[in-house]
Queue: 2 jobs
Job 1
Amino acid sequence: MAAGTLSLFWGFELYHHDDLTFDPKRPRGAFNSYTAFRKRVEEGSAVRASHLETPSFKMAAVHWSRGDAEVPSLQKVMGSAYRADLDPGEEQDPRAEIRWVGGETAALQRVQQYLWDEDSLGLDYVGATMTMDPAKSCMRDRAMSKFSPWLAHGCLSPRKLYEEVKRYERERRKNKSTYWITHELLWRDFVRFGSIYAGTSIFLIGGPQNVRPKWSWSSDRERLNRWIEGETGFPFIDCFMRELKATGYCNHMGRETAGWFLIADLGLDWRMAAVWFESVLIDYEPTANWYNWTYRCLPAASKVPIDRLSSVEILKWGTQHDPDATYIKRWIPSLSSLPGTVAREPWRLGLNDSDGGVASDGLRALPKSGQFSVSQGPLEALISMGFDQKDAAMALYQTWEDADAAAALLLSRNGASEAKMDSDDDDLARAVALSLGENPEASGPVSPPQQGFRYGVDYPKPMIQPVSLMNTEQAEDEARQHQSRRDQQIAASKRQKGSGGQSFQKPN
Ligand SMILES: Cc1cc2nc3c(=O)[nH]c(=O)nc-3n(C[C@H](O)[C@H](O)[C@H](O)COP(=O)(O)OP(=O)(O)OC[C@H]3O[C@@H](n4cnc5c(N)ncnc54)[C@H](O)[C@@H]3O)c2cc1C
């Protein structure tokens, strides 16, 4: 056997280590924040051409004998450590958006598909860290590139990807989305080079900043397992955790909010959770995982966990990114019969009521104290239809503020009690029924929106006291409108592209 020299190449990052204007070991402020880092690299460094990554051999290339033609099974490789119950096998979960196949060929095919075939980069792309724009939802198919497993395992060079993005900008379109993917690749460099500086402190419980919460970290395994299994009772957390377990992937917002919740609301030692991520992520990469935990999630420890939910992003972002709870219902099918608002916040089913909640007719029981509050928007909508304010408020409360269900309930009650409706009221009843898309003549019993769903059995009650946000319906509506406008723009651009390239002659 001949001896040879081992050469190492800096090919994993977007920016080459030697092109930085600072030494990552002695960075002079470059890692104070992501923004500081981004400014330093954007101002002083350039991205090298990807073809420079190809190593040139001074000696004759080494020839390896061909390995086994077949990849050995997991069971064979792992021997006695293999556990069949943890092996997801080759079957793809039908709910997953894509199936990742290893290797450079598949990686380049995905680039071709996402950028060129589907035009998704310029039209659908939202990006891992873009959470604030109400028109953009991270929870839609095609909103994420899903390049991360290929990037993490060295199947896709970030410089090659960068060149393709630049070419796309020249040949197709240049917009905020095309900038944003480069920004995400810079995030990737930030965690890589930042870890050179932080060293092993990313594995310490206080992280590089030595964060010390006012409470003691808990290592309660049972709580951790509920979080891992997606059984916390908070659908916005559970949908991501279930997706992660089934596919090895969930988007950045899901990873981050699940991390905040685990730290600030459950007070658990986050390293147990980071180890779970390490074991299950299909894009696992040590610095991306551990640095993100310490940089993005650990600051949540400065919030004091109390006995009620403090990570309100779980409610706000759920409303903004998933107004109809479509994504939540995809990963938690037991919630699919519920109205969107209730599927996102099932504690509206009456958890806080002293009497425990659901009455025998399936509607939410009114609190014994007689005091309750409902959102102004839907209440005004019902009053403007001619319903009495008090009746409308009660109906709204009983239907978890589903205005359509409340109107139907009020109408059915009016009929049942044979409260005399004059002809105006009949007209109103017809108008409301029509506006609900129903046949006004068929006055059947009201179906409670959650019929068949057993709260606490089909889906767990929350691990900690939840809260509900004010004006959720209004926020849902705004998100829906923004997103549907964006959908229309995307569809129009795709149609244009579809007819693009063909030239038409004006008929004579
Ligand atoms: C707690 C936690 C753990 C994480 N663990 C990992 C991990 O092990 N491996 C991993 O690749 N990413 C990790 N991330 C970062 C991020 O969530 C994923 O990179 C992203 O969700 C991948 O989806 P995408 O390819 O569609 O991203 P896109 O939005 O398309 O971004 C393009 C690429 O940029 C990189 N990127 C984007 N954001 C980040 C970021 N914050 N940190 C590092 N790289 C980023 C990824 O390589 C990604 O493929 C973690 C984030 C958190 C909060």
Job 2
Amino acid sequence: MELSGGLHSNGFIQGQAIIQSAKTIDRAAEDLVCKAESMGLMVGDVDRVIGPAMGAINISGDIARHISFRSELFDCLSGYTEKAYDGARKYMVLRQVCIRRAERIVLCDDVLSTGLNVRLAAEAILRAYGIVLPFVFVLANRSGLQEIDGRRIVSLIDYPMKTWEAGKCPLCAAGSKVFSPDSAEILAKLNWED
Ligand SMILES: [Zn+2]
């Protein structure tokens, strides 16, 4: 399996499987907010929830809504970043959103694989003079990490999975065929298996 960042792995977690259900994602967002509170987050401190596209586009809004509904006084906003390239260097830019200076922002993502996208989203926020709070909300954490740059991961599913650089992948060395989870071949199998 080739993940979106180019790493190889022996497994894949499809975030969309949770996100596609309005009820499931709603409960998941509520559970994440409760869990973060139990880990010390003051929800009234969160001005906005932001994560990297595509995975975080929907869940940032779901989490922000649950924070907002905690009090008449809260109006937590949401937003997302998109990847961009400077030559071969990947970075993230804020899209469809203009954050205020010193806005307090918590990061989110659907599935955490290496933490790179979340790290790049944090850099985009810092460049825009936002404050990145010390929590990262994720539905599923497959990275094996507990924190990213000192920001604690708040996850509902913890399921560490191995990843390798393509050139060092033992599955490829053993003759295994590489495929992308988004490939037409795999989607056809998932949708039409007899
Ligand atoms: Zn491989």
